[in-house]
Amino acid sequence: MRSSGSPALLAKDFERFGRELPRDFAGHVRDAYRIDLSARYLGRTIPHPIGKGSGQLSLNPGQLETDADAGLAFAVLKTVIAQDAGGVQSMAAWAIHETKMKVERRGDGWTVTWKGRGWDRSFDDYLALVRAARDLGRAGLLLAVPSVKYHLPRLHEPFRDAEYAFTTRALADAWGESPLLVEQDFSPTLAGDPLADEQAHILRWLQEAPDRIRAQAPVRLAMKLMNARFDDAFQLEMMEAARGADALVVFNRLFDPVANVAYGGGELSDRNLRVLQAVGPSGPRAVDLCGTGNIHTGRLILEYARRRCSSVQLHTCFQLPLEEYPAAAGSRTQRALHALVFHPRDGLIAGLLALEAQGVVSRRDGELHFLDIVDAHRAR
């Protein structure tokens, strides 16, 4: 193996991979820079920390195959709305067709706005997508997991366990191996729903939903936490309440009550990083964290990693105008990965080498390890 972290090598790779990014770029990084980018998502080791969040970019097999060809580490499928055996969905208001997404600048960054919500096709179609995702995973090409919006009751109401039972068991059958990996999505639009006006509602959902899901099948569960319309302290309460999950996705988009849309950009990452920095010694340290929110550079990935996020999931970064990517060719996924990893100043490699120079992370057996940053901060 060569061992080189020189700026000249990084500049050369940035230029040539802008024409064609190798699928196994993580292997190249290990050979050329002696950097192991291995990360974790839902207990699985993945080749690097960058995944795709649930949404319109992960709702058909073709999109998943494109992401697999690009070398993406993982993807979360579009969120399906839970139903019972008769097809009844108590959260049916979220199963509406997406309007066209609008990519626009917000402050110094980018955000995507849209009016739609969850999966609006048949549940059988969703199960077919899960099977396609399963096959890609078994082939070692891409870890792609389902996402579900389950029933969230008012305080005086019971959970609709028939929806939890039918949906979880059907997904487990389609997944075809134990345990089922699944995200529970607290939709960003929920912040604009009257149900989310009461803290007690939210804490009850986070405390009780994991056991209801686990009662139906063996699962490894990630809970995608929203940015509630309360202060930072309540974000920490939500993390504490969700200890029944195996992983937390922290935190989904902010909500603009005037425009009635969820949004991202710099305000989102500023809040997320501030809250994660405040997680104290009594925080949920046994739970893996997956960062999300305005992640558009490798250095931001490392800021989340320094707050214990062992992987990240992006959405906006994969749908910018083509002229915003430095790469001259490839899918948007390839172009985004090229910039996130190889940018000579703001990329993941450059950021890791800078942290090495600062003494934040050291080599083991001649290699830097991305997860050493995560685990060092997790142990504090």
Q: Which secondary structure elements does this structure contain, and how are they paired or packed?
A:
Layout: H1 7-17, H2 25-33, E1 35-36, E2 39-41, E3 44-46, E4 50-52, H3 61-70, E5 74-81, E6 102-106, E7 109-113, H4 123-138, E8 143-149, H5 161-175, E9 180-185, H6 199-214, E10 219-224, H7 232-241, E11 247-250, E12 254-256, E13 261-263, H8 266-277, E14 288-291, H9 298-305, E15 309-314, H10 332-342, H11 348-357, E16 368-369, H12 370-378
Parallel strand pairs: 1-16, 4-5, 4-15, 5-8, 8-9, 9-10, 10-11, 11-14, 14-15
Antiparallel strand pairs: 2-3, 6-7, 12-13
Helix pairs in contact: 3-4, 4-5, 6-7, 7-8, 9-11
Strand residues, percent: 15-25%
Radius of gyration: 20 Å
- Structural class by helix and strand composition: alpha/beta
Specify the overall morphology: globular
Separation of the first and last Cα atoms:
33 Å
Q: What string, H for helix and E for strand, traces the elements in order?
A: HHEEEEHEEEHEHEHEHEEEHEHEHHEH
CATH arch. level architecture: Alpha-Beta Barrel
Query: What is the CATH superfamily classification?
Result: Aldolase class I
What is the arithmetic mean of pLDDT? Answer: 90
Profile the largest sheet: 8 strands, parallel, barrel
CATH fold label: TIM Barrel
Q: Could you give the order of strands across the largest sheet?
A: 4-5-8-9-10-11-14-15
State the share of residues found in helices, binned by percent.
25-40%
**Domains counted in the coordinates: how many?**
1
